[in-house]
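Subject: Predicted fold for Radial spoke head 14 homolog, 330 residues

User T.R. writes:
Posting the sequence so we have a shared reference for the thread.
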Amino acid sequence: MAFVVTDSTRAPVAFGLRAVPKLFEELQPPDPDRRLRALGSLCDLMHDPERLYQTVHGGFLEQLQVLLKDDDPSVRTKTCELLHLLTGHSIGRQALLSSCLLPPLSLLLGDSSPSCRRNVHLVLNRLALLPAGAQALLSLVPKLMQKLREEEEEEEVQVLLLSTLSRCSQLDAQPALTSDGASTSPSCLFVVLSAGLSVPEDGKQQVCEGAVLPVLVGLLQDEDLEVQANAAGVIMYTVMITAGKQQCLDLGIISVLLDLVKRNEEEEKEKKALIMYSLRALTALAEAPDGRRLLLEQLPLLVKRSEAGERDPDIRRAAQTAVRVITWTP
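User M.O. replies:
I've generated the structure tokens; pasting them so everyone works from the same file.
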């Protein structure tokens, strides 16, 4: 049997169709160094679509389950790197979802190795690209929310977490809502929601059906400016549909939004996004008869913000649009 040797960190690679099977055989011995070299060579081969296809359809994936529980953190990390490369292709993502690897992989979210945890998040993020993957990850949402609350990970991992949670929340918001996020870490939950859940039509409907709006109204008065802005952003999108308008009106949201529009000039720069979201939400609420009636009573405030005295042109235009919609007559 002929082999090609690359370097000391890689195992010898057999030619042709024997390359993948021989490397998987090298994963079995107890020597962790041999396993690492074999994993390194397998990672190199996964850049070849033919070898990736052979790995996926050759029944080799199940052998990785033992490596995900290996005592050596380097072996666990390299195994997750191999899975990340596999999930770079749709067939790899589908194969992983059909395998028994997801439960042991999810256990590594709390691994002692930061590199291993990062690779796990890379794999989960790619799985979430598929609707079936997002569905499979819904059971992990509470655990992912907890990881987000801990805020111990580096920025890249935090971004991956938010991206994965956003995709899962677009499919079903309920696991995030019932993960205790609304009460213990509102900023985490509503950053996720505002990242995409409330933008699509079905997402707006989920916000209405999932009892999210009462929590959002409370968060408009949160001490954290980012939480306020994110909550206002979700409300802004949700009130575009009739169910969202009616729920918000029933919750008495107009007075809360008007209070947010009343800002001192010194605060304008930091709170511009919050004011813009609030004005746009009020504009949408003015399309409902009850909303227009309530806003007509508070028109002087909005008129003031729409006049030349308003320094910020974006806020001025948003206020002008609100006034125009509120005062419109057939």
